[in-house]
Design goal:
The chain is an alpha/beta fold. 42% of the residues lie in helices and 14% in strands. A five-stranded parallel β-sheet has the order 3-2-1-4-5, covered by helices on one side. Helix 11 (286-293) links the parallel strand 12 and strand 13 (297-300). Helix 1 crosses helix 15, helix 3 (87-100) packs parallel to helix 6 (153-164) and helix 9 (234-247) packs across helix 13.
Amino acid sequence: MNILLLGEYSNVHNTLAKGLRVLGHNVTVASDGDHWKDYPRDIDLKRDLESSTGLPSFLWRLAKAIPKMRGYDVVQLINPIFLELKAERIMPFYRYLRRHNKKIVMGAFGMDYYWASVNTDIRPLRYSDFNFGDTIRTDIEAKRFLDEWIGTPKEKLNKEIALDCDGIPAGLYEYWATYNEVKTVCPDGRRICDKMRFIPYPIVMPEIYRTSFYGGPVKLFIGISRDRSAYKGTDIMLKAAERLKSKYPDKLELRVVEGVPFDEYCRILDGSDVILDQLYSYTPSMNALLAMSKGIIVVGGGEPENYDILGEKDLRPIINVEPNEQSVYNELEKLITHQERISELKRQSVEYIKRHHDYIKVAREYERFYLEL
C-alpha cells in the first residue's frame, strides 16, 4: 500500500512508518516534527510561529507539498489539527485529501473535542486531564484546552472529520474508552464509536537496554513540557521527587529536562532507572514506553484497564500512582528504600514492550486495520 502519515505526536508516525516499511509498504511522513522535538519526516511542514514571515513561508512550502499528498491508499491524520493552521482553514485541505486519496483515518492520539467534552460531560474515566471523579478540573491549563475545543471551530472540524473519515485508531486505553462513548450516526450508517480500533503505540527496541540494578542512588528522570506541566501533572510529580531528594539525598539522583530536541532527550534519558510521566494517565504514553524499552521503570499510569485491553495477565512493570502528590511520594519512597524490586521491574518493562509495542507487530495491526476499511 501507499500510505501517507500526516502530522506528528511524540514520534508515533515516524516510528509507525518504520514498521510499515519493513512490511513492504511505501510510506511518507509529512509533519512539523512535533514542534521543538524535531522528529524525522519526509516532508517538512514546520511553521515558525515567532517570525512575521513564518506564515507566508509555511504556506509556500505547504502549497508545494499538497500536490504530493494524492494517490495514496490510506492517509492517516495525527489529529483533526493536522496542519499548523486555524481550524477553519484546515477543512479545505481535508476535502482535498478526501477527493484525491482512497481512505482517510483520523487518529485518537491526544487532545481533541471528544477528549475534552466526553471527559467533562459523561466522565467515563475515574480521572483524566479534565476530571477527578465528578469534579471538573478548573486549573488554567485545563480550562484553556476546554476553551479551545468546545464551542469553537476546532469542535466543528473534529466532528466533521469524525463523521466523514473511514476509521479512527486509538493509541491509549483512555482515548479508546472516550471515543466509545460517541454514538453519533455517520452518513454511512455507522456510529462514530463503530469506527474505533485500539492499536498500541509502536516502539523500536534499542540495541542496548539495562535490566540490572547494582545498588547506589536511584537515577530518577522527569521531562517537563514547556506549556503543559500542570495539565499533565509533572509539576506535582516534580514536587514529590524534590521532597524525596531532600529526605534521601544519598539514595536519589534527580534529572530534570525541559524543552530539548528528541535526540538530546534520549541521551539524557539513557542510564536512568526510573521515569515520572503523566500523573493523570491510565496508561504509559510514547515517552514512557520509550523509557521502558531501555529498562527504565515508569511511575505514572498503570491502571488495570491498561493491562486488560492488551490482554496482559502476568507482567506488572508500571508503578501506578493516584493523581496526587502524596501517592507519587509514597510509591517512590517504597522503591528507593526497597531496591531489591528494581531489577525485576526493569526486566518486566523490557518484556512488556517486546510483547505489546514492538513496532513491526504494531505495524501489522495497522496493516490489518487499513485493509479492512
